[in-house]
Amino acid sequence: MEREEVKKRIAAKFGAKVKIEERSPRRVYVYAENEIWTDLARFLFDDLDARFDTGAAVDDRDGVEVMFFFPFDREHYYVTIKTFAAKPNPTLNSISPIIPGAKWIEREMFEMYEVNFRNHPDLRPVLRADTRPADFYPAKREVKDSHETVRERDDGETRADETAGRAPKGKNP
Amino acid sequence: MVKKIPIGPFHPILEEPEFFELHVDGERVVGIDITIGWSHRGIELLSEHKTWDQVPFLVERICGICSCSHPYAYVKAVEDLCGVEVPLRAQFIRCIAAELERLHSHLLWTGLAGHFLGYNTVFMWTWRFREPVLDVLEAVTGNRNHYAVMKPGGVRRDIPQEEIPNILKMLGDLEKNNDLLTKAIVDDPVIHARTKGVGVFNKAQCRLYGALGPTARSAGYDIDARRDHPMDAYDKVKFDVILCEHGDVFDKAVVRQLENFESIKIIRQCLKLLEDTKPGDICAEIHEVPPGEGLGVYEAPRGEVLHYVRSNGGNMPMRHKVRAPSFNNILTNELSVLGNTVADAGLITAAVDPCYSCTERMGVVDLRDGSRRTLTEADLVRLSHEKTEEIRKRIAADRGNG
Predict the structure, then answer these.
(1) N or C of chain A: less Cβ packing under 10 Å?
(2) Cα distance from B307 to chain A (closest Cα, Å)?
(3) Among B42, B318, B321, beta carbon nearest to A56
(4) Closest Cα of chain B to A57: distance in Å?
(5) Are the beta carbons of A99 and B210 separated by less than 8 Å?
(6) DSSP states of B218-239
(7) pLDDT the model gives residue A149
(8) B19 in helix, strand or coil?
(9) B112-141 burial, b for 16+ CB within 10 Å, e for fewer?
(10) Looking at the domain assignment, is residue A30 inside a domain?
(11) Is A107 an 8 Å CB contact of chain B?
């Protein structure tokens, strides 16, 4: 389906709850409100016949931006749908009941960013080691910030030198 | 009574970590639980601490076999963000390197599948045919793997004119060898009996699970990022997207074998078109990466690779998302092993050419009495060889009777 037609149909169905932005002839971004998130995914996948590709998350301090990529292969462009799950408890409805291929990527977003996907059939961590604490979400901005701080404080001057690119003091291990 | 059979954390064919827990009723698989992440290296987070130019060296180490595809998708994402036009010569060089990679990757898989089926001659032939491809990659890029060809804006190395006759000679030899290999596979009744109707994943399931590459095309799901999201020289050359219809292990093998011919076709056209470009004009300068986001995809040998980058205007990505095709394809095993036997499970899980690796051992848990036994890699391969041998004898006996 052509780009203009897709944009028109999304705008007609979801009105003010979406904001559509076209960055280039091959990239369309649709920003959606939380409440229509699964409806939008279903509309693209079932009604507009887009292919499901994968998803990604970006921690934005106040919340987590969650996105899924839906390519229209015959017409050579991607539609990326985005929504913002606000902290402290970022929560969204899962699209896995509609698209089973999204199961693992939602699990990954959960274990990395603590995004809780409601109605997910099996929201367990998918990548991390069993020994990692259950409440440790490595890609969260807060975790990254605390990690850097702790490392410098614990390792002292030597570690600071090393991270600045200078050779560590003492014997070469 | 349902038993549970754990396969992992190393796959029997591919020597990489994963874990499958097969739920079996007798010899029949009735369920599966898959665990990945055994070699999670935090590449995405590492990438956020590298400059835009350093990241290709990192992402080519995601996978030794796809060490051209990941940097390719990454540089396309950066170029999408910057709006850069890549010089024509660089476009052809990128395609040549990427197609050479596809050739050696497909040949590697065919060899491993042959080994698992009990056809060690196929394994040895295939890997012998693969060697000259690696030699050419070494001559052209400096390395057999990890080619370090890709760079945002172009490529790092030109292809010297004097290398071109060697590449063409290798392609000519490989074309004959691949033809021989394809006929051997397609005509063999034992391979038919062992792979046809095994591990079927149909077109509708491919769409629901987001299956990619040969896994999808073997079921007739017509997707190929080289044609669908044309990048660089792919819209300047002619090639066919190979499709089959059954989605079983046999069709997955056929798709890969036939794709080798298409790769040879693409490389020959690129080498021809390279003559009309100016030597040395291989990279467009990118002075700074503006704030924003970029999406890059490339059709790796196993399927479409996707890289997403976000910039805050600094000299490093603020976010870098990598999705390898195996992430989608391994999940397809959830359905494709159901109804098959344990002897076929290793083959089916390897048929998607997963980019993790292979199972060194397998444990069998009998839920009835709680007993547990562990099978080694050799046991798993033996199980598969025994089944092939049984079929071979049966076919020979049928012919004798006929």
Answers:
(1) C
(2) 10
(3) B321
(4) 8
(5) yes
(6) TTT----HHHHS--GGGGTS--
(7) 46
(8) strand
(9) bbbbbbbbeebbebbbebbebbbebbeebb
(10) yes
(11) no
Q: How far is A13 from chain B (nearest CA, A)?
A: 23
The answer to whether the CB of B190 falls within 8 A of the CB of B392 is yes
Q: How far apart are CA B339 and CA B98, in angstroms?
A: 37
Q: Identify the pLDDT of residue B340.
A: 87
B33-57 pLDDT tens trace: 887 777 778 888 889 989 999 999 9
| Cα distance between residue B303 and residue B43, in whole Å | 20
Does a structural domain hold residue A96? yes
List CB contacts (< 8 A) between B84 and chain A. Answer: none
B337 class by beta-carbon count within 10 Å (0-12 exposed, 13-18 middle, 19+ buried): buried
The total domain count for chain A is 1
B100 CB within 8 Å of a chain A CB:
no
Measure Cα distances from B242 to B215, B256, B330 in Å: 11, 8, 21
* A133 vs A136: CA distance, rounded Å: 5
Which domains does chain B possess?
2-39+328-401 (no CATH), 43-323 (1.10.645.10)
Give the CATH number, domain containing residue A69.
Answer: 3.30.460.80
Whether the link from the prior residue into B12 is cis, omega within 30° of 0, is: no
Amino acid A168: pLDDT: 47
What DSSP designation does A88 have?
Answer: S
A164 found inside a domain: no
Q: Is A99 helix (H, G, I), strand (E, B) or coil?
A: coil
Q: Using a CB-CB distance cutoff of 8 angstroms, which residues of chain A are in contact with residue B41?
A: none
> Taking phi first (over 0 means left), then psi (-120 to 50 degrees means alpha), and beta for anything else, what does residue B5 get?
beta
Instruction: Report the chain A residue with the minimal C-alpha distance to residue B45.
Output: A139
Domain that holds residue A49: 3-131
Q: Is residue A136 part of a domain?
A: no
Distances in Å between the Cα of B215 and the Cα atoms of A93, B93, B262 are: 29, 27, 17
